[in-house]
Amino acid sequence: MAFNIKLTGCYTKQDYPEKLRSITFYDQEKDEELTFLTNNFKLAASTIAKLYKHRCEIETFFKWIKQNLKIKTFLGTSENAVMTQIWAAMIYYLLLAFIKFQTKYSYSMHELTRVIGGILMENVSLLEALKLKFDKLKLLKRENYQLALSLKI
To answer: How far is it, in rounded angstroms, from Cα 58 to Cα 78?
Structure first.
């Protein structure tokens, strides 16, 4: 269902004096009624409802990216830079998920990330470290390896 409206509030009328279109859509999957406001009078109401639904899915996807892939900001602004960063983060996440699945690691992905980050530069087997309880991982002593650089003078 769609109908035209005009904002009548003191400030809202100043902010947007043009007509708007109110579209009500019933989402059968979620069993809820959604109402959208738009200034697009050309597209069909069903098309606008589908666009908003996909917009919500995109926002949910980016929320998942922020929470799981730990991307707080993008390093570049071009499409290629953003896509490269997302792909690299997704590959990292999928590798972690695969390691978690293969080793039957019982802790969270966050803990797995911490474990891998903690032993990355150490001479410790990842598979052996994942078998340890989390408290014992802290007790692993770091072996200091120092490269000997011989200088001839």
So the answer is: 19
